[in-house]
Amino acid sequence: MLRYHTIPVTPFQQNCSLVWCDQTQEAALIDPGGEVERLKAEVAQRGLRLVALWLTHAHIDHAGGTGTLARELGLPIVGPHPGDQFWIDGLPQQSRMFGFPPAEAFTPTRWLDDGDTVQLGQSQLTVRHCPGHTPGHVVFHSAEAKRCFVGDVLFAGSIGRTDFPGGDHATLIASITDRLWPMGDDTVFIPGHGPESSFGHERRSNPFVGGT
């Protein structure tokens, strides 16, 4: 079974998720945005074997520590979708703009597209391309665990911003209604910021997408 632990990192309190297969202890970090030494310590504390870094998108608070971790530990970078290449190229500039530690640009080991899968030990997650917040945003869905790691597509009571370069409000709403809702009302999602919620709760009550 897939297990996970949420680690808020950076001044933006971005939810980095440490996910692992409880049968093999293979682990990945979803959106390692910063505080690299703390993330390493969290992995070591649980006796896990970190095998990959997965990215939902390439904004600095989600991807800022990725290049450093990949280089130091020899890890593959999986995701996001190629639509976020310009955000990856701009990571050093993003880090200066927001006062983050210097961030390294990188080329993902593997780009992701809609319908792809990623494997962690005995657990397989499905990738859905959910643009709107950024052009290359993806989410990771575990049907087995009824969990979805959605980055900045959807929040408890809110949705992702669309006023950054490459953002588009109508596209974001379509991503949520066409690709997230069909995963099921009982699916719990882990957003990029703030508390968890379920798709059913947001579909009923979220003022931005409620009733859709």
UniProtKB/TrEMBL annotation:
InterPro entries: MBL_Glyoxalase_II (IPR051453), Metallo-B-lactamas (IPR001279), RibonucZ/Hydroxyglut_hydro (IPR036866). The keyword Metal-binding applies. CDD domains: YcbL-like_MBL-fold (cd07737). Residues 193-212 are annotated as: Disordered. It comes from the Bacteria. Its cofactor is Zn(2+). Signal peptide: none annotated. Keywords: Hydrolase, Metal-binding, Zinc. The keyword Cell inner membrane does not apply. It holds the Pfam family Lactamase_B. Residues 13-193 form the Metallo-beta-lactamase domain. PANTHER family: HYDROXYACYLGLUTATHIONE HYDROLASE GLOC (PTHR46233:SF3). This is MBL fold metallo-hydrolase. It comes from Ideonella lacteola.
